Amino acid sequence: MTGTGAGGTMLPRPDFTATFPGPFPAGPHDERTEHRLLEWLEEHPLLPSAKAREVLVNITSHGASRTFPTADADELALFAELLLWLTAFDDTHAEGNAAGGPAALVDRVSELMPVLADGTASRAPDPFPAALHDLLARFRARAGAAAYHRLAASLRDTLMGLVWEAHHIARPEGVALATYLAMRPHTVFVRTIMAAGEIVLGYELTDTQRALAAVRKSETAVANLAGWINDLASYERERERGPQQPLSLPTLLQARHGGTIAEAFARASGMCENEAAVVRQGITDLAHASPDTLTAHARALEGITHSFVWHTDHARYQPSPAR
How far apart are CA 235 and CA 258, in angstroms? Predict the structure, then answer.
């Protein structure tokens, strides 16, 4: 699979026909979810641009439907609102502040800490703390204490990841590849999606199950794959912001190995295909495991993988038409 790159060149993309060929199942609630998201944004105006709202609501509602296709309408809408909140915060504060320095982002993140710590409602004029307070209150009402705290902890990790990213975005070539690979799952939100999935789908792994090598290996592979394919999909869109290269997997592979960006894409695509094979094998193994919670977790991981593969072709990730 290839994609059109800068200057009309064809950049290699991973081929998932042997592992996740699609089309992927979608639940029956995507249109209802899209309507609910628009209503929620009326209450919490996270995005001032009508065009930004339209694109983000569309990809979020249809992506959520492919992530957890068996979720009921209310649970799916809550998950979609959380995903929209994360993406809007990244677009508005993380990406928006990174170019001018991360200090403003640190201030925005600090406004969220009391909400995450104990559910304190924020008086900040920024709409994101109030929206997060609303989301967490509804997740707390649905989840056990341990599941809720895992979700809150994953959100803190994500916010830390976004601050880390903002500190390095001006000089991506200075980031060690191993460090980037460790941080990327948090900045692509996939760990938060996993934590939310247990609440949305109504199952919960025991501590013993969570520590199983098969579970940990599968989760790690899904988290890696999510970040890497997102990097390939968003590279050209981020490159347009210039002048520096994006902080992403192709950039760091080119810095380490040299060669052209097309060669870096080919290397990254191979990494994606190999990791997808690990994910597929892990899901297959867990799907035949006992008890049923491991099977439910395998289905959740498969849906999460489907959604990340699906979203790469959405209009949100297409570069602007050449002027």
Answer: 17
